[in-house]
Structures are given as structure tokens and as C-alpha cells.
Design a protein that fits this description.
The protein is α+β, with helices and mostly antiparallel strands. It has three helices and 15 strands. The strands form four sheets. The protein has a seven-stranded antiparallel sheet, covered by helices on one side. A four-stranded antiparallel sheet has the order 9-14-11-12. A two-stranded antiparallel ribbon has the order 4-5. The chain is globular and about 40 Å long. It binds N-(carboxycarbonyl)-S-(naphthalen-2-ylmethyl)-L-cysteine and fe (iii) ion.
């Protein structure tokens, strides 16, 4: 049996919950680091401000985004892609803070994906009502590497859609300090975030932040991903 919302509500820190094959929720894995992670997020946002991107279809996203690392994910009328330069500032994205890298690697190691070396970290900021519709993350060249997500601030309801577009298969609450590693067959699963409930968090106020660590570029000679 896969876990559902109630399992994640009742599991304590330390134990991993299998959300799906290759997808491990680690409640509270980053718990003690939340204040320092948040400080690093705000420092990134000083150099590369949060902004609401426009989709290729012309809709403005309700989630505000920025990035750090050598590549950053962007969307505009021309499509979705990774860029080395922030189109808002015309500068390179801020470097990935060492503590981000360490946390992402530690979580991936614990989940059976040793040596994770992300080159991109997308930072999402949710305000009241912000949502992310069901989607796949498939703009990365290296689909063998997992994605590691870290939640900070207000809780959110994560929707897991499985391998096919369509209905949400399960829901899970993601709370501040929770880390999820998405690898294997879950790497291309459909997923989204339900509209954020209004609230007040002691550290983030009305916001929820989510970090997703991604390996965009394949290593030379890494195989299938290399020629995509
Ligand atoms: C499952 N972010 O940035 S994190 C995204 O909370 C994104 O901001 C959400 O989806 C957020 O693309 C969800 C959980 C997550 C991230 C990546 C995944 C789940 C995933 C990639 C594949 C499968
Ligand atoms: Fe995603």
C-alpha cells in the first residue's frame, strides 16, 4: 500500500515514507536547518528577485520563482527552459549555497541515489491561493538523477498524479523541513500543489517556499540522457 495524507500526518521525523516507487518522503529531514535555509533563500532573492513567470500559453503563474546554481528554470512565451543568465537582471544566477548542496546530497544519499550533484535549484514562493497544476518535470537532460525537494514555511497539500496525466492519485501534506526525493520511475510522475491555504508561519509569514534541486546537464558519456 502507498502512503496517503493520513500516513504523512502521523509519521514522526526520522522515518522515510514511500510515496511511490523511488519517491521517499523524509518528514523533518531539514527541520533544524529551516532558519538558515530561509536566510539563504532571502539572500538569493536579493540578487535574483522572485518574479511571476508567464507560461507559453500567456498565463501568469501564481507561484513566484527564482533560482540559484549554474542554471535556472524559466518560462516565457517562447517556452520552458534552463538558462545560465537571469533574464530579469541579465546576470548569472546566484551560486548555489554550500548548505543547499550538502542537504540535497545528504537526502539523495539516504534514498539510494549516491553522489547527487545538482546544477540547478528552483525556488518557488507560494502566497495565499498560489498553486501549481499537475505537471511533469522534464526539461532536464539527465533523467537518471532524482529531484530533491525541500519545503519551508506554511504547509501545502501535494498532489501526486502517477505516470499518466489526469486525476490526482494521492495527496500528502508537505510541512516545513520535509524533504522528498523523487527518483526512478517517480522522476517523471505528474505532480502539483493545491492552492495554498492562508496562514501565518513564525519564520515565513504568509508564504511557503519550496526548493527543488535538479541535475539538468548530463555528465559527458553518461548515456541515454546525453543526446536528448
Ligand atoms: C515529483 N514544485 O518546482 S515539490 C516544481 O512544492 C514543483 O513547489 C512543487 O513541482 C512545490 O516543479 C512540488 C515536489 C516535487 C518536485 C519535483 C518532482 C515532486 C516531484 C519531480 C518529479 C516527481
Ligand atoms: Fe514539478
Amino acid at each position: 500500500m502507498m502512503a496517503d495524507l493520513f500516513d504523512t500526518l502521523t509519521s514522526g521525523p526520522g522515518e522515510a515514507v514511500a510515496l511511490a516507487p523511488g519517491a521517499w518522503l523524509r518528514p523533518g529531514f531539514a527541520g533544524g536547518e529551516v532558519p538558515s535555509l530561509l536566510a539563504a533563500v532571502l539572500a538569493v532573492a536579493e540578487a535574483a528577485p522572485f518574479r511571476h513567470l508567464v507560461t507559453p500559453g500567456g498565463a501568469t503563474m501564481s507561484v513566484a520563482m527564482t533560482n540559484c546554481g549554474s542554471l535556472g528554470w524559466i518560462s516565457d512565451r517562447r517556452g520552458y527552459r534552463y538558462e545560465q543568465v537571469d533574464p530579469l537582471t541579465s546576470r548569472r544566477w546566484p551560486a548555489m549555497p554550500e548548505r543547499f548542496l550538502q542537504l540535497a546530497r545528504r537526502a539523495a544519499d539516504a534514498s539510494g541515489f549516491p553522489g547527487f550533484a545538482p546544477d540547478a535549484c528552483l525556488i518557488n514562493r507560494y502566497g495565499p491561493g498560489s498553486k501549481l497544476s499537475l505537471h511533469q518535470d522534464r526539461d532536464e537532460l539527465d533523467l537518471d538523477a532524482p529531484i530533491v525537494s525541500v519545503s519551508l514555511g506554511l504547509p501545502a497539500v501535494f498532489m501526486f498524479g502517477g505516470q499518466a496525466r489526469g486525476a490526482c492519485a494521492s495527496r500528502h501534506r508537505l510541512q516545513s523541513g520535509d524533504v522528498v526525493v523523487w527518483g526512478g520511475v517517480s522522476r517523471l510522475a505528474f505532480h502539483g500543489i493545491a492552492p495554498l491555504a492562508a496562514g501565518a508561519h513564525g519564520l515565513t509569514g504568509e508564504f511557503r517556499y519550496n526548493l527543488t534541486f535538479r541535475k539538468v546537464m548530463s555528465e559527458p558519456g553518461a548515456g541515454a540522457g546525453a543526446q536528448r
